[in-house]
Write a structure and sequence with these properties.
This protein is α/β, with parallel strands linked by helices and about 350 residues long. It contains 15 helices and 16 strands. Helix content is about 40%, strand content about 15%. The strands form four sheets. The chain has a seven-stranded mixed β-sheet with strand order 7-2-1-8-9-13-10, with helices on both faces. It has a five-stranded mixed β-sheet with strand order 12-11-14-16-15. It has a two-stranded antiparallel ribbon with strand order 3-6.
Length: about 350
Amino acid sequence: MIVAAGGGGDAVAAAMLDAALYGGDDRPAVILTYAWDRLLIDPVPGPRGPENFTGLRSLTRSVWTVPADAKPIAPAGSTLPRLAAELPHTFALIDPLHGAEGITRQLEELVEHLAPESIDLLDVGGDILAKGDEPTLRSPLGDALTLAACCQVNAPVRLLVAGPGLDGELPAELLADRMDPATLTLTAEHVEPISSVLEWHPSEVTAMLAATARGVRGFCEIRDAGLPVPLTDEGPTVHEADLNDALNRNELARAILATETLAEAEQHSREICGYSEIDYERNKANWLDSRPEQKIDPEATLRRLDQFEAQARDRGNTHTTFRRITEALGLNGKQRQDLRALLLRSRPEQYEAPLWRFT
């Protein structure tokens, strides 16, 4: 069983890790993950619970799986049903509605029901190793909840960090003394099982993890803020970290150990970190709702792309993500795939899968 610490792209990375560590095909892992896609996919802020889907299947009293025919209830969106359709893994839903205690209960039920040979808690980027006061930290809540729960379950859990620094939150050099030396370096062969998923999934950090495993190097501009992330030889590495050390360091995870609601955990995040990432999503969702939708005019879009690329190169970047291009050109999440299709049709030589390379 692999617990995707922050949801979103961590679930895709979990499938890659399953292939790298366990073979993946014969006995694919159960991946326990949030349904927490960013606003490009899900216009509703925060994570989704079972009540936001139709077609879920009960696995235990508190845990539901997301099969391929499940559907998020509008206006919510989710990548999990499509992941279930394209990958052989079972995707079980983390429901954070009842705080860390609720997630702990879900883990305990799964351990009793599945008797898994191993349990890995996977975080891509490494912000799960944060203290909580780092100025570059942006999304601590989901990781803190899964860390708090995994530390309370009555079963051994191994904490793994893939692609240290790739999430743009904590730099790799800061994380170096918080984890063991690399136990694995991902390669293009490990990416192959999820290659079709990378063609549509919006996760920036997992895209960069896969790109570095394929040998891409440089600087990748991500997010709406245009954050530069170095793509180095450290990018495709996987490290083990001590679970208890991570909990002792992570002030937010310790504070929410006994929380019984998501709102309670959010309030701790505001007090300790100075913000809640769900508040950020709420504010951004209101801003996105107020913007008129622009049509994709091919000629005008490519001209604006040229301007964006020139500015990004001047900032020292060599690559970017389709999510970043979508937001930089003022388009909405529903238009991301149409924009991607236009770019691949017009300038296929710039596609360094799954990233966009500046010429």
